[in-house]
Design brief:
heterodimer, A: about 220 residues, mainly alpha, two-stranded parallel ribbon, globular, B: about 375 residues, alpha/beta, 6-stranded antiparallel sheet
Amino acid sequence: MTPALSILAQEPISAAPSAGLMIILISAALTDNILLTRFLGMCPFLSVSKQLKSAFGMGLAVVFVVTCTTVLNFWVYRYLLVPLEPYGVPAESLKLILFIVVIAGFVQFMEMLIERVSLGLYFSLGIFLPLITVNCAILGASLFMVINVTSKGFDTLDVLMFGFGTGLGWFIAIMLLSGIRQRLKKANIPPALEGPGITLIITGIMAMAFVVFQGMIKI
Amino acid sequence: MDALVSILLSAAAATGVTVGLAALLLVAERVLISYGQCAVDINDGAKRLDVKGGQTLLSTLKSEGIFIPSACGGRGTCAYCKVKVLDGGGPIVPTELPLLSPEEVRDNVRISCQIKVRNDMRLAIPEELFSIREFIGTLERVRDLTHDIKELTIRLVDPEIIEFRPGQYIQIEAPAYGDNPEPVYRAYSISSSPSMRDRIELVVRRVPNGICTTWVFDRLREGDPIRLNGPYGEFRLSDDASKKMIWIAGGSGMAPFWSMIRHMQEQGIERDCTYFFGAVTPRDLFYVEELARLSEELPWFRFVPALSGKDLPDWEGEKGLITEVVDRHIQDGSDKEAYLCGSSGMIDASIKVLRAKGIPEDRIYYDKFN
């Protein structure tokens, strides 16, 4: 094994108790990047990354929505579904339905609120919100959150950090791709690969770089 | 028992969360999406509306009785509902951009279903759109004109009076029936004269399996209510009275000309006019006696019916396709203008003939049936 790869073969870095939140953030954003290691939220990733400005707006909207909905869904799960489980309520299957409802309702509410509070913000961020309702990265974050809650005992603060990190990871990924696509405008691409073709290839190469680090940090 | 409890609890949990969110959204809609009263000024003070803000411009105008054409139902795809917003429209929404050309953006044209009334606005709307209304009428009389064409007379109930220019059309709403799950709208030219303001006449030809015409022919009875909206359309007599007119129609394309000729007769408008009307056999002809009489009474009007069918020993009029008849009758088109109404095949063929006669394309006006 070459020296470079031997780093990867080492024992996973374990979180010191005090560094817990930071570790959760970094692992959610980078080593377990929801887009580039799990391939969730691909559709807006490919379609909105054409322009840096709209990619930025979309990325921020995702950070915001993922952070909030993960926490809301955690509360629904922890304080409604789990307590009902002893009475035979199937928390595992019910959570899927409820999470979707919560996300859709929250996104719609936020759209109204942002439109009211700041039109500038509405036009730069709010118009992306309806697109996010169907972004599977949002639901994915909530479902992974449940796994972390059951296996690692996340509390609200951990979940907040996890949600924020997941969103941040998506934001980083779309900004990276959007930056590359800006460069592509001047590049000489074979006609057959223009547009989605080259974008998917780039995404694949980016994903390889991220997948290598997957699971390196053990929360 | 346990199973029942768990089912009920599950349902309660799911319903509770959903209802809670729905309630939150309803409250938010009340509290957040309300912009108070907004003043909408149209055409520099020609019309002023005091409306409640928060709705799209398209639906706000509609509720105030101003109907902007729209085909997609406010989904932002058809781009018919363009309106000039001089003030108060806010920045252009990304969903509008693909539907607007750079010139339109510069001219403050907006897609009215995509912008909301949030504050006072200033608009410029073409005058014609003000007269577009929704009408409820009663079918007063149905008359067979030919084996597949009927004349409908509709008495207007609410509002009771219509203003239109001869050549314009209205839309009939055929309600949901049978296999047709939702109302459809179909356009028909008004065949009556504008002077008869409390009634309109339409000439409807049966389209095999057509949703609206099947409803008109098979279901609609005298005395039934009927919903209309309009008038629409730019097909009308030009302002240049010096040009001699050629009218060409086939089938129910008769309607706008039947309106125009009676309007001209009533108003004493004397413009040289030759009306070519094409059909296949004598049983496809209608209004022929009335038009022949008019062409005797009015020195400036000539009516030329033509039949294209074979084997017509009793027919003494013109024979052949309408384009051939026009070709024989018209020599020099340079002092003429042409008005066409009928199927797209007939219109395209006629345009070719007319252009060959020297009538420029911008003096050929037409209303195609699809």
